[in-house]
Amino acid sequence: MWSISGLAILLPGTCAFNTEICLTAACSRWTQIDLYLCRLGNAIKMIEIRSIQNEIEFNDMLYQRWLVLRAPLGMPRGTEKDKYEDNAFHAIALWDRQIVGSARLRPLSEDLGSIAYVAILPEFQNQGIGTQLVQKLIAIAAEQNLKTLRVMARTNVMNFYNRLGFIAEGEPFDYLDLSHIFLYYKLPAALQLVTD
Ligand SMILES: CC(C)(COP(=O)(O)OP(=O)(O)OC[C@H]1O[C@@H](n2cnc3c(N)ncnc32)[C@H](O)[C@@H]1OP(=O)(O)O)[C@@H](O)C(=O)NCCC(=O)NCCS
Q1: Please, what are the domains in the chain?
Q2: How many other C-beta atoms are found inside a 10 Å radius of the C-beta of residue 32?
Q3: Ligand 1 pocket check: which of 126, 151, 161 to mutate, most ligand atoms within 8 Å of Cβ?
Q4: Does the beta carbon of 181 lie inside 6 Å of ligand 1?
Q5: Alpha-helical regions (H) of 87-186
Q6: Residue 120: CB within 6 Å of ligand 1?
Q7: What distance separates the 2 farthest-apart alpha carbons in the chain?
Q8: How far apart are CA 28 and CA 174, in angstroms?
Q9: Nearest atom within ligand 1 for CA of residue 69
Q10: Distance of alpha carbon 176 from the chain centroid
């Protein structure tokens, strides 16, 4: 697995399907694209990590989210979204113009943000893409001066969040017939200072 740190392409222009309420729009007029190399089988693939840029991508992202998080539970299309989508920042991972991963950040209060719907297509899992997406959301949260992030995670993937610095709090509970738990991430003071 390889990561190209510090390599980014900056593009001018609109940065999200809904510029009025998108966190990206609030923080910058630039859309940053991070490029990430990962190995899939014998091939090395270039993965693009960035925010969604239009409504078509938003709908494609919902479909990809449904494929990973709801279809395996036998749940119909539409169950993959909630009323908070417009008030959120959506990060996607693209390979060959296909959305292979996605994750969402939204503010719960001035200090607290929520990460949700972290979803990587099965054939792209365990290649570091989920890590890249969550790190992207952490960077956006720092730009928004959020102090803490919360995720409601399936307990079977708690390790994934632990490795990123999230710490479980409270007891597991059932949601969609799956065991879940809340985990919290304290944004390092240094990360917050960089954006001041
Ligand atoms: C969980 C998920 C988001 C992780 O993304 P990813 O790109 O596969 O993970 P990364 O390659 O960045 O990180 C790998 C680490 O994540 C964890 N992980 C990844 N997939 C996992 C799985 N299916 N079960 C348990 N842990 C898993 C492991 O700790 C792994 O570390 P290891 O190499 O020491 O075993 C992704 O596998 C996924 O979408 N899974 C299905 C949907 C899901 O459960 N989403 C989370 C909802 S809370």
Answers
A1: 8-147 (3.40.630.30)
A2: 17
A3: 126
A4: no
A5: 129-143, 158-163
A6: yes
A7: 46
A8: 38
A9: 42
A10: 21
- The predicted pLDDT at position 132 comes to 96
152 contacts: CB under 8 Å, gap ≥ 6: 114, 116, 175, 180, 181, 182
State which amino acid sits at residue 118: V
Decide: 129 in ligand 1 pocket, CB within 6 A.
yes
Tell me the per-residue pLDDT of 134-157, one tens digit each, with 9 for 90 and over: 999 999 999 999 999 999 999 999
Q: Which two tokens stand for residue 73?
A: 């539970």
pLDDT, mean over the chain: 86
43: its two tokens: 């091939």
What pLDDT sits at residue 190? 63
Nearest C-alpha neighbor of 134 from the set 113, 99, 105: 105
For residue 126, the ligand 1 atom closest to its alpha carbon is 11
The finding on whether 3 has its CB within 6 A of some atom of ligand 1 is no
Residue 10: per-residue pLDDT: 38
